[in-house]
Amino acid sequence: MAPGAPLACALLREETPFSVIAMSAPNLILNVDSYKASHYLQYPPGAEYVSSYIECRGGEFPEAVFFGLQAFLREYLLTPIHVGDIDEAEEMLHSHGLPFHRAGWEHILQEHGGLLPLEISAVPEGTVVPLHNVMLQVVNTCPACFWLTSYIETALVRAIWYPVTVATQSRLIKGIIAGYLRETADSLDNLPFKLHDFGARGASSLESAMLGGMAHLVNFKGTDTVSGLVAARRYYDEPMAGLSIPAAEHSTMTAWGREGEADAYANMLDQFAGPGKIVAVVSDSWDIWNAIENIWGGTLKERVINSGGTLVVRPDSGDPVSIVCGSIERLMRIFGATTNGKGYRVLPDFIRVIQGDGVNRHSIPEILQAMQDRGISADNLTFGMGGALLQKLDRDIMSFAMKASAIRIDGEWHDVWKDPVTGPEKKSMRGRLALVNDRSGGVETIRLEELGERTNLLQPVFRDGRLLRETTFAEVRRRAELPPGD
Asked: What are the boundaries of the signal sequence (predicted)?
């Protein structure tokens, strides 16, 4: 899915005149790589149907959380193309130095009402799929549009790899945190809020923030990326996918001046503290140790203790491992600590720490391990993750690919595959595919003709401009949930 305007425009649809929206709407024909425009001339004579699939061919994670297809379908494939799209695409692509299949697009407009004659089958969203297995399969439904299957690759792969990768990384981190909570905390009750999304400003576009922010919320419920909430509501019918709390930033604290630092913190308590309430205050604008020792643990100590709510202290600079451990241990010395049933120290309920600087999937276990080594429970800490959550990702992390695997020519299906001698890791699958449960409790990809009585986990979700199956965000979350003990 292309970064940029489409979802930004969608935010204004209810209040913007249709004529303005129409001018801004994306042209699906141009949502493509340049070379795709010439491919309709490259297939063998008699071509009728092309079947392609998407898989993760390898990478840094052992499995993938399939997510994001419904958002793409609702945003892009339920709206028909019109003659203006064809005219614009013809002018641009000809000027760009390429042929243009005007007859093919006019056929789609006249015979299919401008809706793409494609069938897309996929695993249910939220399904955790091991690498090297088919997750999605697409085939044209009109033999005159054999070229369309691969034409949609650019938009479809982009629409899938990014939310899948964010959701997969987020789930992996959830498993890491859950493991440390099991070892050092009395419960996992707070796990859904242990990784908070700070990534909106670091994303490449509003659309990226929406999709990535929503993908993170498949696994957690804490976020400051409001656009992710909008996306979950719009595309997966989730009224409210996540929560946040009042929190300070450096500008609101430093606006009081260094001499007014204690007054700035006191104001945060005045405005937001109280029974059952949580407030986070960034406390390293000048000296985090002075803030802990002499302001939170001195001037404002009794107010913190007696607020009835929870103060979350946020360090925001320095080495994350030493800063987190040092902050928690200082707070424990000042405010006390109890020992939980696992034998680890826990701050009083009225005070906690959130670390949002230098947080990524590598530093999180380093921080938690250092805490455990010092006898500190993981329950004391929440993480905020920004660019590493939504932006420092690419398609190669999981080696996403969409490849043609079968073609029907003059009524007969033939296998299509690649197997480069210089890159065996890029070998593709052959034939029309199915995904089934195997005897070991996992899944395996097989040829469709081998399915027999087994259930194909790839189910049609889109056909000829219609959404055949809809899933809710709650269903996605349930499928992606960690198994007990993980």
From this structure: none
Give 80-125 pLDDT, tens digit per residue.
999 999 999 999 999 999 999 999 999 999 999 999 999 999 999 9
Residue 82, annotated as binding a ligand:
no
Q: Which domain holds residue 228?
A: 165-390
How far is the C-alpha of 128 from the C-alpha of 67, rounded, in Å? Answer: 9
Determine if residue 395 is labeled as part of a ligand binding site: yes
197 is in an annotated binding site: no
In this structure, the answer to whether residues 288 and 255 fall within a common structural domain is yes
The total number of structural domains in the chain stands at: 2
CATH number at residue 234: 3.20.20.70
Q: Each residue of 449-464: pLDDT tens digit? A: 999 999 999 999 999 9
The answer to whether 387 is a known ligand-binding residue is yes
Within 13 Å and on the Cβ side, how many CA atoms surround 64? 30
Question: Is 250 marked as a binding-site residue?
Answer: yes
Find out whether 315 is annotated in a ligand binding site: yes
Q: 208 with 271, same domain? A: yes
3-class SS of residue 140: strand
Is the separation of the CB atoms in 185 and 340 below 8 Å? yes
User: Model pTM?
Assistant: 0.93
Q: What is the DSSP letter of 351?
A: E
Sign of CA dihedral 176, 181, 182, 183: positive
Q: Would you say 201 is a known binding-site residue?
A: yes
